[in-house]
Amino acid sequence: MIKFLFILLGVGWLLGQLLRYFLRSKLAQLARKVNEAAMEQQRAQQQAQRPKDGVHVDFIPKKSPQKMKKDIEGGEYVDFEEVKD
Question: Is the dihedral of CA 8, 11, 17, 20 positive or negative?
């Protein structure tokens, strides 16, 4: 009777170890697949955000010499009086 209990406990322990090993390997495979799918989705989103044709400029204004002038010259002071109607 004691021999039967030891065999039963040994087989139960062995089956538990094997079950734990297979579950860990299957969970690791599942985690890898989920990680790869998330990376692929992230790559697809990044590619979708990039402009495909680049930047297109319709009009480039000519540079005028007045705008190129960096020194601002002061003008005359004009006294202002408010006129009431």
Answer: negative
